[in-house]
Amino acid sequence: MEFPENKSRIDDIRKRLYIKDDKVVARRRFGLLHETPNDASTDWKHDDMNTKKPSAQIGRTSLFKKLFIGALIFFSLTLIVVLYNFLGGKNEVSTASIGIDVLGNAYTAGGEELPLQVEIKNQNPIPLELANLVVEYPRGSDDSAGADMVRTRTSLGTISANETKVYNTKITLYGEQGTTKKINFILEYRLRASNAIFTKEQEFVVQINSAPISLTVDGPTETNPNQEVTLKVHASLNATKTVSGMLVRLQYPPGFRFTSSDPKPAYSNNIWDLGDLGAGADKTISITGTLIGQDGEDKSFHIYGGVGTPGDFSKLQVVYNSYLHTIAIKKPFLETHITINDSTSENIAVEPGETVRVQIPWSNNLPTRILDAQITAKLSGNALSPSDVHSSDGFFDSNTGIITWDKNTTSSLASIEPGESGQVTFSFTPSAIENSNHSFLVDPQVMIEVGIKGTQTDAGNITQEVKGSETKIAKVVTDFTVIPLAVYSIGPFANTGPIPPRAGQTTTYTIIWRVTNTSNRVTGAEVRTTLPAWITWKGAVAPAGVNVSYIDSSREVVWKIGAVDRGAGLSGTSKEAAFQVSFTPSSSQIGSMPQLITESKFSGQDSYTGVQLKAVRNYLSTIISNDPQYSNGSNGKVAP
Questions:
Q1: What is the arithmetic mean of pLDDT over 98-105?
Q2: Which of 452, 453, 569, 634 is most buried as measured by Cβ atoms within 10 A of its Cβ?
Q3: Does any domain span residue 76?
Q4: Strand 620-621 to strand 421-428: parallel, antiparallel, or no bridges (unpaired)?
Q5: Which of 267, 279, 263, 299 is nearest to 214 (CA)?
Q6: C-beta neighbour count of 8 within 10 angstroms
Q7: Model confidence, pTM
Q8: Which is more confident, 350 or 149?
């Protein structure tokens, strides 16, 4: 059985296959079908068929053919042009056809001018337009990535086909002897009717056969731990051309403490300005310091010579040469140390007038016995008082300032076995006052130089002397203090009210802070105190301009003193500040002596010893014993 739906689909397929006129197909609609009349001829008409116009489908096919034929023609023309250029080669430009030849000496002295001739050959069939030659080379001895480079650019104009252009230049290279420097020649050019920039590079290598600046060091290659060392740095110019603004910079190893130099550094403690260095000139810098380290460590000093950055001495703009000097730290055979008041620091701060204890431990680090050992301690310095030096087991010669320990004073030093150790001791009392005129000393100190020596006998019965040494400095701290005073009848303010104070009545007082300082300058000094709850800040401060302030939230009175010179308050110059407070006693305070201010806490830094100074002075009460009119202590009790 055939369903109507299937029949409709079959009729539709038949129409698509057998009906010539595409109107039926083009105008097919879904839904209800209507019969369309078609008048078809029953006879063949050849003339009509030959002259019949193509259908719309045939028209579309013809359009695609035209597009295809046009594209094929364009591709063919492009292929012909490419083949013509490839096979003919008349307009080809190749970097391989551009030659850069550098003529010059492959060896040069650092700092000397090196003449070079550069030939640029264009073997291409077309010209190179807007040609520039860039020359690039390191400004100093450093030619690593990121180093400062010299770049010059020279216009060569147009280089015609098969033309050779010659460029002459002179450059100056710097570096250590034996190092190589690379000079880059870069040709930049354009082609006609093109905005693109093309390049061709050529490298020329030159070896430095002598450095422009010669750096050498005279100094030890070995030293004992914590010893003073001196390095002499020699800088000389090898070039014939004068170098302006020559600088020498030292990079110190960790553990090196700079002491002094000759000449003095131009910047910080490691940069020296040698000025203009002429041909054959030689400059010497002597640097002294203490090298602190452990046995087996190597300490390296890096020395650089060059010119500085304009306006900034802290860095070198161009480094001409460098040198590395290494000092090995080795444990001494016969070792000794200095301990001051149980401290092994290089610089020790001690109080004036107080006894300083010094221990000198020693040990034999050799695998053999040491005979007839002797230990000496030489004392010197402006704070040394020979009469205050004491040693229980050594002999002190006050004429030379030397304490000696040997087998006559200490029996254990007669023969010291391998690994054996011991200790000797002494004490001294430093003074900050000069005995001749009783004035305070400037930078008071006591230097202790300890040496130890003995005789070693090896298996061949050959004797040799072994030594060890160490130096320490005891710096005397300044005596900086603040004296608080409470007065009524004297001072910069007129006070009022009853003395002794009475309950319910107001009395004003003047508080004075007096500063004294002995031998060393003090910086960052200040004093602080707090007002009790029953005391009122009056706001009066003297002298004018003194930096005394009151902090209401904490009830603190602060005097920012700043710098205090040596001898302040003791040698005719006074340094003090005053402020006024008031007190209205309560009946509950009758018979008592209430505080006017709490403890005075002062601080500052000793600029010579580096010690942070801190101290506290007692509070002040209504007992104003410093006032000349009220010396009786009973005057301070609150009366009814």
A1: 88
A2: 452
A3: no
A4: unpaired
A5: 279
A6: 10
A7: 0.53
A8: 350
